[in-house]
Structure prediction request, 450 residues.
Amino acid sequence: MMEDQITPSAAPEAAVLTPEGGGSAQGQVTAAQVASSNDAQSNRLTQLLQEAIIAGNIPQMVMYAIMLALEMGASDIHIEPEEKTVRLRLRIDGVLRHIVEYPNNIHPAVISRVKIMSNLKIDEQRIPQDGRTQVTTDDGHEIDLRVSTLPTVNGEKVVMRLQDKTQSIPDLPELGLRGTSLKIMERFTHLPNGILLVTGPTGSGKTNTLYSVLHRLNKVGVNIMTFEDPVEYQMDGLNQSQVRPEIDYDFSMGLRTALRQDPDIIMVGEIRDQETIEIAIRAALTGHLVLSTIHTNSAVSTLTRITDMGVKPFLITSSIRGIVSQRLVRRVCNFCKEAYLPDQGTILDIQNELKNVSAKDLDPSLLTNLQLYRGKGCTKCNHLGYKGRIGVFEIIEMNRNIGELVLKNVPDDQLEDQAIQDGMITLKQDALIKALEGVTSLEEVYRITQ
Prediction:
């Protein structure tokens, strides 16, 4: 039986997944070598996980759960206590998938194991806790594991977010930007000052978009500062700082400090309150480029949200240069993709939605010979029909027309109508274009837009 020991220390050590036994303390996890991604390996790891559950081997249970998540390309591991059992689910390409269940009588030991790995308090079960650790696979992939616990009526729930630190930063076209939207984003990367906001729900790829912009802006002649919670990617050339709200080092304090550090470009993880947006506006009006995220439902509603924060309309029009709203859709698996003809009602709906989209954003032949795509399911995509994700975007570029409407404090629908007249591609239109091109499915379009 393989040994698997972790000893808590003042700071969480990196866990190492190695081929065979002899694991020592100091934060090392011993495991079988993680093989290349395929259906047989996923099945094998699932079986090993089930065997560890039957044997009551808690360290191996946690170890194999992490390995299976890595193998299947999951972004999160959910361990959720219910009345009689505890279920383990993986978020794969944005959708949770049930993997296995185990008896709730061993759940406290599982929780303790995860807490030890992430240097959390084992005896504290009344309040949520957040921690992190690192897992290094045998093939050299460094995985940042962010752990969050939450007390529920059935026991503590755990969510582990997996972030592959060895992945490269994607360029803007790789995110899914194209046509008019790509040209607008490229113009944003040449702005001397102002605020660029990226909005969308949690897990919609906002941080990736910001880092893609920063990657293009990262030159020797500029001072780029970031304030994040946590720092998700480490990039040479950037001065990256992690805020710590528990000691009153928050985004607003970071922004104030940045202005004394001779910055050219400032990235703030999230704008959450009036103080932060006011400091960001002051920075933008004094010659700095500020990038940040904000939680709203659309690009247009972001303008209303900022107004609700107490910002005067004339400050909005003079400081904000652009707003990017985005979602992630699952890609149809290229190995089992098949085309099909939708019903006539669906065809008419799609044609009506895309009738005003210009030829530079949509090949007209895709509307005349309309067909959609779906995945049948195969071993390459774990029989889901989808493999990977891609972004869909809508982007508002602040111009005279939009600015005049903001000053008049008009409703969101009028702002959106004007933005569309000015050439904005909406989220739904961008998603439908990708569906016609075979990148995603119509079901994914409806999932994110309805």
